[in-house]
Amino acid sequence: MKKLFLNLVIFTSLVLEASSVTVYVSQDQVFSEPILKDFERETGIEVNAIYDSEESKSTGIMNRLLAEKNNPHADVYWANEPIRAEVLKLKGVLAPYKSVNSDGIASVFKEKNNYWCGFSARIRLFIVHKDAVDKPSSIFDYTDEKFAKKAVIANPLFGTTTTHISALFTVLKDADKFLQKLKKNKVAISTSNGESADFVASKKYDFALVDSDDAMSRLKQSRDVEVIYPDQEEGALGVFVVPNAVMLIKKAPHLDNAKKLIDYLLSKETERKLAYAQCEQIPLHEGVKTPNNLKPIKELKVMDVDYEEVAKKLIEIQPYLREWINQ
Length: 327
What we know:
- This protein is α/β, with parallel strands linked by helices.
- It folds into 2 domains: 2-121 and 242-294, Periplasmic binding protein-like II (D-Maltodextrin-Binding Protein, domain 2, 3-Layer(aba) Sandwich), CATH 3.40.190.10; 122-240 and 316-325, Periplasmic binding protein-like II (D-Maltodextrin-Binding Protein, domain 2, 3-Layer(aba) Sandwich), CATH 3.40.190.10.
- 39% of the residues lie in helices and 17% in strands.
- Strand 1, helix 2 (29-43) and strand 2 form a beta-alpha-beta unit.
């Protein structure tokens, strides 16, 4: 009887293990958790979600995955941007997987060998105070003398500002000169995109380059601000897009369930939910309705970047950015 009971416990444990999936998540828990709960209800697969802390956003999970490379605990990584995905790919942590739901997403937003795929994006745009006499139309307006001391940008050592600056270094021959001109034009440096948006909403500065979710939240709070999509003219750079990215972990313990979760995250329904959550992210699938205050991705001129090159450049320019911020 004792042996029978022990076998039953082992069998039950194996069944539960087989019907689960472990996902590491860098997207804010308030937005990602409802999606994962829906997946649980619809598939019966238990989701063990490990969320990154606000203090170590993205880097904490990335370092954990690197440490677990030879003995992976996670099956899937849901990142809030693709740059860490590229680092993990280069470090041999990821396995390729082509989801059927990736077909409707433009090639610029996915890794060419299917190591990650983007979905539900933020974009980098201007939040502008409506009382501003002059209003920007390009990121290069940061260096225009008429905007001297009137603009703010988040510290380029952190977050999406780092990623955006790194992208500029891949598409501009003189990105370093652009940063030096920012200094010369007395552009203020804030601690975050959120603080930049608050500075504009409070009329401390005329404009700031921020993530679309930061701009949308302030737009709801204040009638005194508006958004401007930078560099939309013919021949201009276009807006920088920061998609979520989902990827399969190499030697994932629950491979079949991992693939099901990736398929679910890349679905049009998931993009619809994230579009109408408080984060108001822009769908990358054509035909999914975009939040009312934002333009659909197909109506925007998008910066043409290689996210692998951006990831490499981000690592390369860190010493320069630290020197620049301390000048």
